[in-house]
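Work through this:
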Amino acid sequence: MSVSDRNAITVRSIDFCQDALGLKDMLGEDAPLIAQLEPAVDEGQAFILVSEAGGRVAGWVVVRTAYREDTGWSAEGDTASYVIAPKAYLEYLEVSEAFRRQGVGTKLVEAAEVEASARDRDALWLHVREENTGAIRLYEQLAWRHRDTIHPS
Protein backbone atom coordinates (compact mmCIF):
# COMPACT_ATOMS: atom_id res chain seq x y z
CA MET A 1 0.00 0.00 0.00
CA SER A 2 1.22 3.47 -0.76
CA VAL A 3 0.51 6.70 1.07
CA SER A 4 0.40 9.38 -1.59
CA ASP A 5 0.11 12.28 0.87
CA ARG A 6 2.28 12.34 3.99
CA ASN A 7 -0.46 14.38 5.70
CA ALA A 8 -2.72 11.34 5.39
CA ILE A 9 -0.59 9.62 8.06
CA THR A 10 -1.99 10.22 11.54
CA VAL A 11 -0.37 9.50 14.90
CA ARG A 12 -2.29 9.13 18.15
CA SER A 13 -2.00 7.61 21.61
CA ILE A 14 -2.99 3.98 21.83
CA ASP A 15 -6.36 2.78 23.09
CA PHE A 16 -5.72 -0.77 24.33
CA CYS A 17 -9.29 -1.93 23.74
CA GLN A 18 -9.38 -0.61 20.18
CA ASP A 19 -5.78 -1.18 19.04
CA ALA A 20 -4.50 -4.33 20.74
CA LEU A 21 -5.72 -6.72 18.04
CA GLY A 22 -4.30 -4.69 15.15
CA LEU A 23 -0.96 -4.41 16.90
CA LYS A 24 -0.91 -8.13 17.74
CA ASP A 25 -1.41 -8.93 14.06
CA MET A 26 1.54 -6.71 13.14
CA LEU A 27 3.75 -8.06 15.94
CA GLY A 28 3.33 -11.76 15.28
CA GLU A 29 5.51 -13.66 17.76
CA ASP A 30 6.32 -10.42 19.63
CA ALA A 31 2.59 -9.99 20.51
CA PRO A 32 3.13 -10.80 24.24
CA LEU A 33 4.85 -7.41 24.46
CA ILE A 34 1.38 -5.80 24.35
CA ALA A 35 0.29 -7.49 27.59
CA GLN A 36 3.52 -6.42 29.29
CA LEU A 37 3.09 -2.81 28.20
CA GLU A 38 -0.49 -2.26 29.36
CA PRO A 39 0.33 -1.85 33.10
CA ALA A 40 3.28 0.45 32.29
CA VAL A 41 1.05 2.67 30.15
CA ASP A 42 -1.75 2.62 32.76
CA GLU A 43 0.74 3.75 35.44
CA GLY A 44 2.27 6.50 33.25
CA GLN A 45 5.63 4.72 32.94
CA ALA A 46 5.44 4.26 29.18
CA PHE A 47 3.52 5.54 26.22
CA ILE A 48 2.60 4.03 22.91
CA LEU A 49 1.78 5.96 19.78
CA VAL A 50 0.15 4.30 16.80
CA SER A 51 0.24 5.55 13.23
CA GLU A 52 -2.61 5.03 10.83
CA ALA A 53 -2.87 5.44 7.08
CA GLY A 54 -5.75 4.44 4.88
CA GLY A 55 -7.69 3.17 7.92
CA ARG A 56 -4.96 0.64 8.79
CA VAL A 57 -2.34 0.52 11.51
CA ALA A 58 0.83 1.57 9.69
CA GLY A 59 3.24 1.49 12.63
CA TRP A 60 3.76 2.10 16.30
CA VAL A 61 6.36 3.28 18.77
CA VAL A 62 6.89 2.45 22.46
CA VAL A 63 8.70 4.82 24.80
CA ARG A 64 9.53 3.94 28.42
CA THR A 65 9.69 6.82 30.89
CA ALA A 66 10.46 4.82 34.03
CA TYR A 67 12.23 1.61 35.00
CA ARG A 68 9.94 -1.35 35.73
CA GLU A 69 11.06 -4.67 37.13
CA ASP A 70 8.68 -6.56 34.82
CA THR A 71 10.72 -5.55 31.75
CA GLY A 72 13.36 -8.16 32.48
CA TRP A 73 16.10 -5.53 32.38
CA SER A 74 18.76 -5.57 35.07
CA ALA A 75 18.31 -2.61 37.43
CA GLU A 76 22.08 -2.09 37.25
CA GLY A 77 22.32 -2.43 33.47
CA ASP A 78 22.82 0.34 30.95
CA THR A 79 19.32 0.04 29.50
CA ALA A 80 17.68 0.62 32.88
CA SER A 81 19.70 3.82 33.27
CA TYR A 82 18.19 5.18 30.05
CA VAL A 83 14.74 5.50 31.63
CA ILE A 84 15.71 7.43 34.76
CA ALA A 85 14.32 10.98 34.54
CA PRO A 86 15.02 13.22 32.76
CA LYS A 87 15.69 10.50 30.14
CA ALA A 88 13.33 8.21 28.27
CA TYR A 89 13.98 5.12 26.17
CA LEU A 90 12.56 4.48 22.70
CA GLU A 91 12.13 0.75 23.17
CA TYR A 92 10.30 -0.30 20.05
CA LEU A 93 9.56 1.19 16.64
CA GLU A 94 7.87 -0.80 13.93
CA VAL A 95 6.43 0.21 10.60
CA SER A 96 4.37 -2.32 8.68
CA GLU A 97 6.22 -3.46 5.58
CA ALA A 98 3.46 -2.07 3.32
CA PHE A 99 4.09 1.45 4.72
CA ARG A 100 7.89 1.60 4.88
CA ARG A 101 9.78 4.51 3.28
CA GLN A 102 6.63 6.63 3.18
CA GLY A 103 7.20 8.88 6.19
CA VAL A 104 5.47 6.75 8.83
CA GLY A 105 8.64 6.09 10.85
CA THR A 106 9.56 9.77 10.71
CA LYS A 107 6.14 10.85 11.97
CA LEU A 108 6.25 8.27 14.78
CA VAL A 109 9.73 9.29 15.98
CA GLU A 110 8.88 12.99 15.79
CA ALA A 111 5.66 12.43 17.75
CA ALA A 112 7.57 10.36 20.34
CA GLU A 113 10.08 13.21 20.74
CA VAL A 114 7.25 15.70 21.32
CA GLU A 115 5.44 13.44 23.80
CA ALA A 116 8.65 12.68 25.72
CA SER A 117 9.34 16.40 25.99
CA ALA A 118 5.77 17.01 27.20
CA ARG A 119 6.52 14.46 29.94
CA ASP A 120 9.58 16.48 31.02
CA ARG A 121 12.14 14.19 29.39
CA ASP A 122 15.10 16.00 27.85
CA ALA A 123 16.80 12.99 26.27
CA LEU A 124 15.45 10.07 24.32
CA TRP A 125 17.68 7.01 23.90
CA LEU A 126 17.51 3.88 21.80
CA HIS A 127 19.52 0.87 20.74
CA VAL A 128 19.65 -0.25 17.12
CA ARG A 129 21.45 -3.19 15.57
CA GLU A 130 24.32 -2.27 13.25
CA GLU A 131 22.81 -4.35 10.44
CA ASN A 132 19.52 -2.41 10.63
CA THR A 133 20.71 0.16 8.13
CA GLY A 134 17.21 1.42 7.31
CA ALA A 135 16.59 2.36 10.95
CA ILE A 136 20.04 3.93 11.29
CA ARG A 137 19.40 6.01 8.18
CA LEU A 138 16.05 7.16 9.62
CA TYR A 139 17.59 8.24 12.93
CA GLU A 140 20.47 10.02 11.17
CA GLN A 141 18.00 11.90 8.93
CA LEU A 142 16.20 13.00 12.11
CA ALA A 143 19.52 14.33 13.51
CA TRP A 144 19.92 11.67 16.20
CA ARG A 145 23.52 11.26 17.36
CA HIS A 146 25.44 8.01 17.66
CA ARG A 147 26.86 7.75 21.16
CA ASP A 148 28.25 4.25 21.65
CA THR A 149 28.70 0.98 19.86
CA ILE A 150 28.14 -1.99 22.12
CA HIS A 151 29.03 -5.52 21.11
CA PRO A 152 27.17 -8.05 23.27
CA SER A 153 29.32 -10.83 24.63
About this structure: The CA atoms of residues 138 and 144 lie 9 Å apart. The radius of gyration is 15 Å.
